Amino acid sequence: MSLASIGVPGLIIILVIVLILFGPRKLPEVGAAVGKTLAEFKRSARDIMEDEEPVLKDLEKKHIDK
User: What is d(CA 22, CA 65) in angstroms, rounded to the nearest whole number?
Assistant: First the structure.
């Protein structure tokens, strides 16, 4: 599931719930924390994919050579 599949109404509902839970003063802090978390997750996922790419290419090459 991606953020694009949530849609505008879903984002509005999420924003209202976060606003109720944390209040308007904490909202920028929560947003920054979520943004940093997503960025770290994307970076980690990209690093894992880059680490696995040579292994996959090697396996693919061995399969083709057979």
Answer: 59
Pair of tokens at residue 38: 């997503």
Structure tokens belonging to residue 56: 């996959």
Residue 26 DSSP code: H
Distance, first Cα to last Cα, the chain? 38
Nearest CA-CA partner of 50 in 39, 42, 40: 42
Question: Structure tokens of 35?
Answer: 């943004």
pTM score above 0.70: no
Residue type, 54: P
Q: How many residues does the chain have?
A: 66
Give the confidence band of 39 by pLDDT, cuts at 50, 70, 90.
very high
